[in-house]
Write a structure and sequence with these properties.
By secondary structure, the protein is of the alpha/beta class. The chain has helices spanning 15-22, 35-51, 73-83, 101-115, 130-135, 143-160, 196-204, 217-233, 253-274, 289-300, 303-312, 318-332, 348-367, 376-379; strands spanning 2-6, 56-59, 88-95, 120-125, 162-166, 171-176, 189-192, 208-211, 241-246, 248-249, 315-316, 334-340.
């Protein structure tokens, strides 16, 4: 099984200042910790992954808040391609409704050409943040249609290098990618399957799932099983998943518990705030009915969400982490985990210690795992 490391570039300590400014209160213009200093530290995390035997480095796309500050994952990965030698590079995810899918395909093809023998894993998704859709001037009611059309165009371009498509949102006439593809890249296309609506689209289009838990791992597993059922109904065989996991590794269980409990709950808090997951705005957005139901539950009691990362994600001594990841990998039929090692208010040095210990004492055992894809009997 492959093991990746993910860089998020979070400025968690800035949330109170950011939200106060959003309310119109008088606050300093800049955060106490400079955004760019976090970027430079996260780049060092990527370099550590490269020299420590990780298989891949991943990053994410978000806009405007302290949640994560990577606005163009392919741009960051292109830089990382030049300062690393060994790791494959992946996106988790490029949010398709915010982009022209032809440009996304071009940028993926460009990075693939630059990587040589290394691989690009092109994770995509639909996006959830109200602030992001508004700031980018995209009507969130159009997200479903833009996403569906983009998946079709992107898959066609990455498989054949050419596409003609006429839809409601995109008109593509005999476009041909340059530089030309060296091979069919459609197998590198994965999609975050965070809602029933998205699962249905990617299952029938033979796109493989990225499991990025924005809910509890138990609910995420239910979603993975539903995806496999839909895929079977479309006449397609079971497939592997790639699974994002928040990891904290320490020499003692006591030390690991203290760090994981603090920072994983801070991460969950940051996700709740960025996505405004207790808000009522999902009620009026087409294609987000599933999120509206979750928001109603979170308004009643957000505690399970805030505790969920600490309760189920892998933390502990290297042995404990191996045991937890092995169990999750089997349940999800996982071919690769994307480990998040720095999150919440965790400092760079602490994240590097956890990651280095994981790489030395846990990762070799995890890389020897070979889980089978989730079987249809487990889906039933």
């Amino acid at each position: 099984m492959r093991v990746g490391a993910t860089i998020f570039c979070q400025n968690y300590a800035d949330w109170d200042r950011y939200e106060a400014a959003e309310r119109g209160e008088s606050v300093p213009v800049r955060p106490e910790t400079d955004d760019r200093s976090i970027f430079y530290e996260e780049i060092e995390i990527a370099k550590l992954a490269d020299r420590s035997g990780f298989d891949s480095v991943w990053t994410i796309e978000h806009h405007f808040t302290p949640y994560t500050m990577v606005t163009n994952p392919l741009q960051l990965l292109t830089y990382l391609a030049g300062v690393t030698d060994n790791v494959d590079l992946g996106t988790m995810v490029i949010v398709l409704p915010w982009h022209n899918p032809v440009r996304v395909a071009e940028d993926i093809a460009m990075l693939d050409a630059l990587l040589g023998d290394r691989q690009i894993i092109a994770g995509v998704g639909r996006g959830l943040g109200r602030r992001e859709y508004g700031g980018l001037g995209v009507d969130q009611n159009e997200a479903r249609g833009r996403f569906d059309e983009s998946i079709h165009i992107l898959r066609e371009l990455l498989s054949t290098g050419t596409c003609t498509f006429h839809g409601e949102h995109f008109q593509v006439d005999d476009v041909k990618l340059r530089p030309q593809l060296a091979s069919d890249l459609s197998g590198a296309l994965y999609c975050a399957a965070g809602s029933p609506e998205t699962m249905a689209v990617i299952a029938k289009n033979d796109v493989k799932p990225l499991m990025i838990p924005t809910v509890s791992l138990d609910l995420t597993l239910q979603g993975a099983r539903e995806f496999m059922r839909l895929r079977s109904e479309a006449g397609l065989p079971p497939t592997d998943t790639k699974l994002a996991l928040w990891i904290y590794c320490a020499e003692s269980e006591k030390e690991a518990r203290a760090g994981a409990e603090l920072y994983m709950r801070e991460y969950a808090d940051s996700a709740l705030r960025h996505y405004e997951m207790t808000g009522t705005h999902f009620d009026g957005i087409r294609g987000y009915e599933g999120y509206a139901q979750r928001a109603a539950a979170l308004r009643s009691d957000p505690t399970p969400f805030l505790d969920g990362f600490f309760d189920r994600h892998p933390w502990g001594t290297p042995k404990m982490v191996v045991e937890k990841i092995s169990e999750l990998a089997e349940q999800f039929g996982t071919s690769e985990i994307m480990g998040v090692f720095r999150y919440g208010g965790m400092g760079h040095a602490e994240a590097a210690r956890s990651m280095a210990l994981f790489a030395e004492q846990a990762m070799p055992e995890i890389q020897r795992l070979d889980p089978a894809p989730m079987s249809l009997t487990s889906v039933a």
